[in-house]
Amino acid sequence: MTILLAPMEGLLDFVLRDVLTRVGGIDRCVSEFIRVTDQLLPERVFTRIVPELLNGGRTLAGVPVRAQLLGSDPVCLAENAGRLAGLGPAGIDLNFGCPANVVNRHGGGAALLDEPDTLAAIVAAVRRAVPAHMPVSAKMRLGFNDDSRAVECALAIAGGGADELVVHARTKAQAYRPPAYWERIADIRAAVRIPVVANGEIWTVDDARRCRQASGCESLMLGRGAVTDPGLGLAIKASMGGAAMPAVGWPQLMPLLAEFWRIVCARLDARARAGRLKQWLNFLRRRFPEAESAYQQLRTINDPALIDAWLAALLRAQAPAGPAWQAWQAGQLAA
Hints:
By secondary structure, this protein is an alpha/beta fold. The protein has helices at residues 14-23, 43-49, 74-85, 101-104, 116-129, 150-159, 182-191, 205-215, 224-228, 232-240, 250-267, 270-284, 289-298, 304-317, 321-334, and strands spanning 3-5, 28-30, 34-35, 65-70, 92-96, 136-141, 164-168, 196-199, 220-222. An eight-stranded parallel β-barrel has the order 1-2-4-5-6-7-8-9, surrounded by five helices. The model is unreliable at 320-330 (pLDDT under 50).
């Protein structure tokens, strides 16, 4: 099976992609979207959002990254896809699922699910604009207000020449509210002749098992579940193989948290740094009681120097974490 890391605007950026792929269990990432409107973007825009383009299209852990484009003009998207392809991504993905109102008002993201002909035209134009060896994939939701055209949209995307389709098993109107309707992915999978990847509401190994059964998909895309539990991909793969996988615990997570903070401080504006750390801790506290404590301690702190001191003290208190992490990682490599 293949496990993909989802594109999530404002959350799963290059910093989290870097850190999460170091844990293992992720086979491929998709970047957050690069918005295309009415102009050919300079290369610096692509490398700013997807800095992995400067590393052979891979994270530092060696996991390939497909760069995602969002827009509604087939010609402009094709021109930008051609320039992007020259930078060497692991593939190009097309966003037909973003539920943000500001995106949908301009005809992008999930709004295109009411226009199957436009979907086909976009995919076909992008497919023609990039080298034949470069994969072109797409991500869609089940629909905008309802799922009545889900299969029609999937057929349009496949007919346009997409090599793979990820389906988030909710409509735009359903946003991120549970449940995810995995059985509707099975209808899409039965209709198209390209690989289909299931996405939506996969938080645990049991969720992954039920999703695969309901959708019929071998491969999965993880979003918030992987942010909440960085070891989820490894655990899913081990479970599907019939093996038991020790959970990634807080001691193993501490060096990753420190590395996340180091990258944030090196690459992001000072005003955004504390918020990014607290954003991740807010997700982690769903899985780790220690993250709840950490979040509460940092909730009102925005000074990076104070966070540096807090993190240094936490790492000293968790001194065994270094060897524990090394031993845990060695176990993954041996497996």
